[in-house]
Design a protein that fits this description.
alpha+beta
């Protein structure tokens, strides 16, 4: 069963690095830029992804988006906003999840960069719902 799970790498960066990555990704440290380029990878700020989701839901109808209310509340909470502004998802070939071998390699290479380019933490997450907190269920 574990062969069916895909993975994602997320990094937490310093507030200064987050501002740079969100404002002008071209100014990211060369070692990080080169690593991402080698893996055809990119970074997406989780706060920005959440905001895009909420905006799309509001444009197309929130009832079609099961995580709309949870996501809207999350980005509206100042503590959570601060957290997610510093959290970036690594996309590979424009995919937010990918096979374990790719995730393991990225995790190792990004962990080796920790500190210098403002990377504070590197985590690997799998798609198994049993291993990840799920948004709360809402009574209809």
């Amino acid at each position: 069963m574990s062969d069916t799970w895909l993975f994602q790498i997320r990094i937490t960066v310093s507030p200064e690095a987050a501002a740079t990555l969100r404002g002008d990704p071209q100014c990211m440290p060369p070692a990080l830029r080169d690593l991402l380029r080698r893996h055809d990878a990119s970074l997406t700020c989780q706060f920005d992804a959440f905001s895009d989701y909420v905006n799309e839901a509001e444009r197309l109808g929130p009832e079609k988006y099961s995580l709309y209310q949870w996501t809207k509340e999350t980005i509206g909470n100042p503590d959570k906003k601060a957290k997610y502004l510093r959290s970036f998802t690594v996309y590979v070939n424009s995919n937010e999840v990918y096979p374990g071998e790719i995730a393991d390699l990225l995790q190792a290479e990004l962990s080796a960069l920790a500190g210098a380019p403002g990377i504070e933490r590197v985590v690997k997450i799998d798609t198994n719902p049993a291993n990840n907190p799920q948004p709360p269920k809402r009574e209809q």
